[in-house]
Amino acid sequence: MKTVENFMFALFMLSHRTSKISTAWMCDKRRVVITGLGIVSPVGCSVEKAWTTILSGKSVVSKLTDEAYEKLPCRVAAQIHDDMIDINAHFTKSEIKTMARATAFTLIAVKEALEMAKWIPPLLDASSLEHTGVAIGMGMVDLMDICDTNEALKKGYNRVSPFFVPRILPNMPAGQVSIKYGFRGPNHCVSTACATGAHSLGDAFRFIKHGDAEVMVCGGAEASISPLGIAGFCRLRALSTSFNDEPEKSSRPFDESRDGFVMGEGSAIFVLEELSHAKARNVRILGEILGYGLSGDASHLTSPREDGTGALLAMNRALKDAKLNPADIGYVNAHATSTPIGDAIEARSIRCLFTDCWREIAVSSTKGAHGHLLGAAGNVESLFTILACLEGKIPPTVNLEKLPEDMRGMNLIANQFQNWRPSEGKKRIALKNSFGFGGTNACLCLGEYRE
Description:
Blueprint: H1 2-29, E1 32-40, H2 47-56, E2 62-63, E3 76-77, H3 87-90, H4 93-97, H5 101-117, H6 126-130, E4 132-138, H7 143-155, H8 164-168, H9 172-181, E5 187-188, H10 196-209, E6 215-222, H11 227-235, E7 266-274, H12 275-281, E8 287-296, H13 309-322, E9 331-333, H14 340-353, E10 362-364, H15 367-370, H16 377-391, E11 393-394, E12 411-412, E13 418-419, E14 429-436, E15 440-447
Parallel strand pairs: 4-5, 4-6, 9-10, 9-14, 10-12
Antiparallel strand pairs: 1-7, 1-8, 2-3, 6-7, 8-15, 11-13, 14-15
Helix pairs in contact: 5-9, 10-16, 13-14
């Protein structure tokens, strides 16, 4: 009996080792490319419009005019106004009852991304649907929905919508996309505060690398601008309060006068695809995800680790995953939200990573234009990063007027986009940072696609 047990154990260990070797080999061989993009954001509700606005160097932050905001310290936000997109035109009344605003943004962005990727479910066979997954997260639920439902409950139990719980579940954008299109691969939700969007892309990247899917529809969504949301972040002293009368100047990453972030809303969606799968379809390839790194600060609820090692670990791990060195990177799309502490720590970590070339490496944060989209920040900004790699234009940091002393000498791209011309033979490759409350960090290594 003991001999049989020993044999079974040996067989298990051999199988386990073989499986690990096989998985590692497969991960090295499988490349993950981007074939579709979609966006609903304060800077535009299509990829073309959003990219044009970002390159223009203009801020779209505006004043919060509802009387509910009048007594709050922060009265600015980057909103998606009704004249930018008509949600009612995209959904029936019955559909709108079942979804939060963030879910609606997601479904609209997904449609654009799938059309760009030419991955249209009615034309797909059962096997294709089974090998297409969804990874979409939210940073925060709709606080207004909770407040309104609580008021309804005070009037009577029957006033509570039967769709209340599904509307506020963070995984419902992913669930709604899977149900609408029949995607039966991984159905995954990430909720890691302001790192949500980047983690969603990174996890989807790994699902394809490991063979769990051939195609992933992924990203993040956020729609939490409300009096309660603004009040809560104000109490944390996280929001800008000095530019209420000049809202377009309020989000100013890295600038000496920065005093807090500005809330934004929206969604951006990527269609990721295994390279040979995309090539077999002869679809346009927009770029490639080369690596993904994660870390934890293990330090503080809301502030980054002061020495910057949390961000540094994530960036180093993304480079290691991509099998690249700092010298291979031409641009860093920073998380930089416009907070006094966070921006300084991230700048310090970038200088530490690029020890020999920190004066040359281009750095910018697009949050100056569109504010901080919280759970949708990492994916929205990754979209602009991949377009920078594709088109050779580095987006600017809006409202960057004066560098503080501890950032002088850095190549922080201010107010106007910069052409990106790498040395001959080198690809355009960038890092995209995203950090969240609780000390969660993510970094994506993104690049232009070449054979």
